[in-house]
Structures are given as C-alpha cells and as structure tokens.
C-alpha cells in the first residue's frame, strides 16, 4: 500500500428527512454482527457518532447529527439505538482513499540554514 493509502467504510441510511452515516473500522466483524448481535459495536465502528449529509447521499458535507434530528427521524435520541438501526437497515459503502502526493521529510532539508 502506498504511503497514506487506506480504505474507508461507512454505512449509509437514507432517512425521511436526511441521510445518515456511521463509519466502520472492521468490515468483517460488522458482517458477523449482522447475524450475531452479541458482538459489541465497539469492536467494529470507528466512533459512536452519527453523521448526516444534508440529503447529499454518501458524498455530502458531514455534520454530527443533533439529538433533535435523531429524535425526529428515529423516534429516539439514544445514539446506540440509532447506530444499530443504521447498521441494520443501511447500505455499506467502501471507498479507496488515494495516497498522499508529494515529498516526505526531504522538503524539510531545504529549509535548514547553514
């Protein structure tokens, strides 16, 4: 893998009022969780944070979803419950993040004064 190259996985759920995302660290464990709910969420999600994209699908600007937004869309502001709903009913998306371009620390040598 090239320096800085990574994959990013997220689960997207299109709600009535907005689009919601939860980021996944371990796709294999997430897939196991779908059939075995005894697996703790902490074993495969990035953070216990729900993002919304202002109806822009998976590519929109991400903002943290407020408790009011969650209550309006899901009938609860309990983040654990909403995350479970997104994970159960949403669609997983994985995208390759390109490697960073440019020189590493070599550019620092030109900044030294002699």
Automatic annotation (TrEMBL):
Biased composition (Polar residues): 91-114
Pfam families xrefs: SBDS_N
Domain of life according to the entry: Eukaryota
Domain Ribosome maturation protein SDO1/SBDS N-terminal: 8-98
Region (Disordered): 90-114
Protein name: SDO1-like protein C21C3.19
Species this protein is from: Tolypocladium ophioglossoides (strain CBS 100239)
High-level lineage: Eukaryota, Fungi, Dikarya, Ascomycota, Pezizomycotina
């Amino acid at each position: 893998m090239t320096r800085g190259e990574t994959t990013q996985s997220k689960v997207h759920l299109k709600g009535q009022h907005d689009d919601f995302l939860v980021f996944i660290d371990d796709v294999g464990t997430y897939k196991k969780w779908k059939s075995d709910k005894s697996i703790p969420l902490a074993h495969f999600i990035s953070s216990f944070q729900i993002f919304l994209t202002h109806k822009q699908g998976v590519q929109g600007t991400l903002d943290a979803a407020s408790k009011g937004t969650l209550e309006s869309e899901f009938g609860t502001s309990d983040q654990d419950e909403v995350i479970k709903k997104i994970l159960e009913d949403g669609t997983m998306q994985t995208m390759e993040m390109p490697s960073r371009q440019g020189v590493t620390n070599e550019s620092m040598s030109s900044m030294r004064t002699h």
